[in-house]
Design brief:
Elements (H helix, E strand, L loop, with lengths): L1 H19 L25 E2 L9 E3 L16 E6 L7 E5 L9 E9 L5 E3 L6 E3 L5 E7 L7 E5 L9 E7 L7 E7 L10 E6 L5 E3 L6 H9 L23 H12 L7 H8 L9
Antiparallel strand pairs: 1-4, 2-3, 3-12, 4-11, 5-10, 5-12, 5-13, 6-7, 8-9, 8-11
């Protein structure tokens, strides 16, 4: 009986390695499953965005009127770029670090929501964040500091789910896989866009790959559109005194309970949607 038990234990540890390969890098929660909510990354993922901005959202969510059904499971990830010159990224701690020089295959479903209503810091008005953007895939050891660009998608304008497959060959050991959204290459000014992500694969080792490092370097070094550094009119941001205080207090309780991860501007953005808005 003891021998049979030991055999089953050894078999259970051996089979996954044979099925997936000894160097497969497993992602935590690759299908972004969690309770649908705004301003909180799915379990297993880390927010790597700007300190004073809200994290990405778990969709589908009525909060921004973005109700696209997931391609896999019950939920997906929603990431945006902003006309104020900020954008979103998330990171996944890998089971162990990427092996320098090893080729990996990574796949993920991408789409664009044709509706995403939120408040613009640039104008102070509620607008639709629906311009096409694209995905950049990085390796790093810090969630908010992408280090090595490994791959990137085309600009995603389609609203139906499509699967994209990438080949990655890191030159350094990275403990994190970072997914970041970005304005279309060549854009001169920041704009409001969104990207939906779902059904990511693990990083599967492959024998060989074809990496265009010249294109990667060009994308990594391409300038990111920014606002005039002298632009920022505080009057454009609606003060909290003009919104429903009961709603704000209720939402703050969720923050203190750890149910929502949101920046200071995010709180103002949330509260501003409940009073005096034409679609609220």
């Amino acid at each position: 009986m003891l021998k049979q038990t030991l055999f089953l234990i050894l078999l259970g540890s051996w089979l996954p390695q044979q099925l997936f390969g000894q160097d497969t890098l497993f992602l935590q929660n690759p299908s972004f499953e969690d309770e649908p909510r705004h301003s909180k990354v799915p379990r297993g993922w880390l927010n790597g965005g700007f300190p004073m901005e809200t994290p990405p959202d778990i969709g589908p969510t009525d909060f921004f009127r973005a109700d696209t059904k997931p391609s896999d499971g019950e939920t997906h990830l929603v990431m945006i770029t902003r006309d104020f010159g900020t954008w979103e990224r998330v990171a996944n701690p890998l089971a162990w670090s990427m092996t320098p020089g090893q080729c990996y295959e990574f796949s993920i479903d991408l789409a664009r929501s044709d509706v995403y209503l939120s408040r613009s810091r640039l104008t102070g008005q509620h607008i639709s964040f629906t311009e096409p953007i694209y995905l950049r895939i990085w390796g790093s050891n810090l969630a908010d500091r992408p280090s090595e660009l490994l791959a990137f998608s085309p600009v995603v304008g389609h609203t139906d789910w499509k699967r994209y497959t990438f080949q990655l060959q890191p030159q350094q050991a990275h403990a994190l896989l970072i997914l970041e959204v970005m304005y279309a290459p060549g854009s001169r000014i920041p704009y409001s866009g969104n990207l939906l992500l779902d059904n990511a694969s693990h990083l599967i080792p492959i024998d060989s790959c074809s990496i265009n490092r010249e294109r990667l370097a060009k994308i990594q070094q391409s300038p990111i559109p920014t606002l005039d550094p002298n632009f920022e009119d505080p009057e454009l941001l609606q003060p909290l005194s003009e919104v429903d205080s009961a709603v704000v207090l209720g939402f703050m309780e969720q923050i203190f309970d750890g149910q929502v991860d949101i920046g200071l501007y995010g709180l103002a953005n949330y509260a501003s949607q409940f009073e005096g808005q034409p679609w609220g």
